[in-house]
């Protein structure tokens, strides 16, 4: 019930295209859904996050869409650039909890071709 | 300002050796997390500190793993009698508050290879 599923495992997109990564969760107690971006040899860095009281959040070229009833959320990267090539992790956690209740998906390796 | 730093960045150990991995969190951050990241996988939670108190160690895979944060700042993850399955990147993260939400700031990790 603590698992967060993520797809696809890898994604290749042409420069200027839209990258879409999907995640699903089971535990309805999760109430915070961040996306982290990780470059090789670096630690993950927060990209964008959403709370379940909204269905969409946009920051620049990055948008999270959230479907509470389906327990799914997705990351859309508009106008994808080669510099976006990285591994993306969705995650889920709870406001009144911590530790093992901060769960990461397995990651999506994105390659944006020039 | 300085981010989260970890040392060493790379560690090679022979099976059976003990290792110690250090994390320097962002100054003033109350919460500190350790994660294990296997190749091609997402980070998996190991343990959580709130100041010097270890409030959750449910993710530590065996009693060979031990973590401490004695003064509420620097933390050390120790692995005794290392095994090949311990090979992974060990990530440390810190955050300002104590809530389960909010940004975690990650260090670059320590890549441990056990031969």
Q: Can you summarize this structure?
A:
Chain A has strands at residues 4-7, 10-14, 19-25, 33-38, 45-50, 56-59, 62-67, 72-77, 86-92, 103-104, 108-113. Chain A has 114 residues and is mainly β. In chain A, strands 2, 4, 5, 9, 10 and 11 form a six-stranded mixed β-sheet that branches. A five-stranded antiparallel β-sheet of chain A has the order 1-3-8-7-6, with no helix packed on it.
Shape of chain B: globular
Strand content of chain B: over 45%
Q: Determine the oligomeric state from the structure.
A: heterodimer
Total number of beta strands of chain A: 11
Largest sheet of chain B: 7 strands, mixed
Structural class of chain B: mainly beta
- Poorly predicted runs of chain A are none
Q: Which geometry of chain A do the CA atoms define? A: globular
What is the percentage of strand-forming residues of chain A?
A: over 45%
Elements of chain B, N to C (H/E): EEEEEEEEEEE
Supply database-style keywords.
heterodimer; A: 114 residues; mainly beta; six-stranded mixed β-sheet; five-stranded antiparallel β-sheet; 11 strands; B: 115 residues; seven-stranded mixed β-sheet; four-stranded antiparallel β-sheet; 0% helix; globular
Topology at a glance:
The complex is a heterodimer of chains A (114) and B (115).
Chain A: E1 4-7, E2 10-14, E3 19-25, E4 33-38, E5 45-50, E6 56-59, E7 62-67, E8 72-77, E9 86-92, E10 103-104, E11 108-113
Chain B: E1 5-7, E2 10-13, E3 19-24, E4 31-37, E5 44-50, E6 53-56, E7 65-68, E8 75-79, E9 88-95, E10 105-106, E11 110-114
Parallel strand pairs in B: 2-11
Antiparallel strand pairs in B: 1-3, 3-8, 4-5, 4-9, 5-6, 7-8, 9-10, 9-11
